[in-house]
Amino acid sequence: xxxxxxxxxxxxxxxxxxxxxxxxxxxxxxxxxxxxxxxxxxxxxxxxxxxxxxxxxxxxxxxxxxxxxxxxxxxxxxxxxxxxxxxxxxxxxxxxxxxxxxxxxxxxxxxxxxxxxxxxxxxxxxxxxxxxxxxxxxxxxxxxxxxxxxxxxxxxxxxxxx
Amino acid sequence: xxxxxxxxxxxxxxxxxxxxxxxxxxxxxxxxxxxxxxxxxxxxxxxxxxxxxxxxxxxxxxxxxxxxxxxxxxxxxxxxxxxxxxxxxxxxxxxxxxxxxxxxxxxxxxxxxxxxxxxxxxxxxxxxxxxxxxxxxxxxxxxxxxxxxxxxxxxxxxxxxx
Lengths: 162, 162
Known about the structure:
The structure is a homodimer of 162-residue chains. The first copy, chain A, has 162 residues and is α+β, with helices and mostly antiparallel strands. Helices cover 31% and strands 29% of the residues of chain A. The first copy, chain A, has helices at 3-7, 14-17, 32-36, 48-59, 91-94, 114-128, 143-148, and strands spanning 20-22, 65-71, 78-88, 96-105, 133-138, 152-161. A five-stranded mixed beta sheet of chain A has the order 1-2-3-4-5. The longest helix of chain A is centred in the last third of the chain and has 15 residues, at 114-128. At the A-B interface, α3, α4, β3, α5 and β4 of A face α3, α4, β3, α5 and β4 of B. β6 of chain A pairs antiparallel with β5 (133-138) of chain B. Chains A, B: Its main location: endoplasmic reticulum. Chains A, B: Belongs to the acetyltransferase family. GNA1 subfamily.
């Protein structure tokens, strides 16, 4: 995207110029996977067939999985995304938990509260889906960002890489 | 796929008296939900219909969701459990991540390495399912336990309760 055009925009216009919506198959050509690669250095481009296959896997989860994207209407590129999946449990009276994953805002589109809008969209979705809580893992550097979104630090994340 | 074969390797007599296997509907009557209530004070008993409904929800996820239980053959009670679900991503070349949740060992059965056996079973399962990593959230007090299971502290968990 063109950072100069972004600079000329007024803040209040962002809802119209940068609307949030569900991921669509056509977003592959709009840089969705490129955007994710800003999140994980090990990300690699996907073939169109692999993209469609993964899209179908996730669509089969129905309302229990949502990927939201923000398309810049000027550049036609995906500049922010995040996802939430709903985990169905036996505890808490067969309760549900929302897991937020893979929130990223394009480096050129930062400073416009897009991240907060994405996180709010996902938390609202989890709440409407009947989750009793929504959780996510992040680096310590992102704690204050998520605190602004209403989250509190609770536990630690442990990882085992294969 | 079958992750069970991985768990049958484990040492000692406990293998026979305390075998690990997938959750079955009949485990409701063997105290499975009671065991989970040791994990979350807000857990409540489930009716048989609610248990079956949740069981069916999870069975529909196929190999992407596994609940393992340990039934004490002497008492006929479920004394340990844990679950893992496989998240399918677009990043890392359409990679997969295993999420471990709800690991608990009955207070009366601790000190017999059941927790480690459960975690090993779940991590073996995630690896065999093609995950590039397996992650979990826990309190700081459990860090050394999970380090013994091969995990490393990585990030922080943030939570928002509704």
